[in-house]
Amino acid sequence: MCGRYVSPDQAAIERAWSVHARDIAPFSQQFNVVPTSTVPLLRPDEDEGGTEMALARWGFIPHWWKQDKPPRLTHNARSEEAANKPMWRTPLSKGRCLIPTLGWYEWQVVDRVDQRMGEVKKAKQPQFLRLPGGGPACFAGLMSYWRAPDSGEWQLTCSILTRKAADSIAEVHDRMPIVLSDDAHSQWLDKDLTDGKEAIAFAKEAAVVEFEHYAVSDRVNRPKESDASLIEPI
């Protein structure tokens, strides 16, 4: 799964992927992105070709959703099930995107000694996971436009595809977001790839599997905390 991650700032995204932004207010790096946050994504540019940057709600809402309250727990989409579920069929076919990241957080179950009682108890230690060396990367994402029934306004929303954890980080958590290799980005966004099952198979085949991780402060547990010290090792 992926419930928290780090998102680069606008300038870093433009440098890393040579993309442009149309009608977007400048945004800063986010060190503790939580579901329902507004996040940058990369998508095909329908007007000028190539790739463009857009802002979206992290928490997918399908175009056919009629309720005022958005669906829950749609910030992730399990790759093993997505092709067979109505929620994800259309975006897998024609709504794929890339979600820039510098890494993500998971909580590893560890043994910790209670200093007062002297007992060993289970605890969850937050870990920061990233590419070796900490370079930028992209999650395989899905997107959709949804029109809010109350306001009639259109909103871009997105989700991150997940998979079984790679061996390099399996000790931390059994699930992880699909991180695509750089040379797979254009094919993931290719409009000619319309078969959802083929798209998932491609994403898994093109997924990065080597990562590093280290323990970080439990301040990341608090959604309002968001500064560079969150990703410093402890």
Give a quick set of tags describing it.
234 residues, 4 helices, 14% helix, 14 strands, 5-stranded antiparallel β-sheet, 9-stranded mixed β-sheet, hypothetical protein yedk fold, 37% strand, mainly beta, single chain
Strand/helix succession: EHEEEEEHEEEEEEEHHE
Number of helices: 4
Total strand count, please? 14
The quaternary state of the protein chains shown equals single chain
Which consecutive residue ranges, at least 5 long each, have pLDDT under 50? none
Q: What helical percentage do the residues reach?
A: 10-25%
CATH superfamily: SOS response associated peptidase-like
How large a portion of the residues is in β-strands, by DSSP E? 35-45%
Main beta-sheet strand count, sense and barrel state: 9 strands, mixed
Provide a concise account of the structure shown.
With 234 residues, the protein is mainly beta.
Could you please describe the fold and organization of this structure?
- There is one protein chain.
- The chain is mostly beta strands and 234 residues long.
- The chain has one domain: SOS response associated peptidase-like (hypothetical protein yedk fold), CATH 3.90.1680.
- 14% of the residues lie in helices and 37% in strands.
- The strands form two sheets. Strands 2, 4, 5, 6, 7, 10, 11, 12 and 13 form a nine-stranded mixed sheet that branches. A five-stranded antiparallel sheet has the order 3-1-8-9-14, with no helix packed on it.
- A hairpin with a 6-residue loop joins strand 10 and strand 11.
- The longest helix is centred in the last third of the chain and has 10 residues.
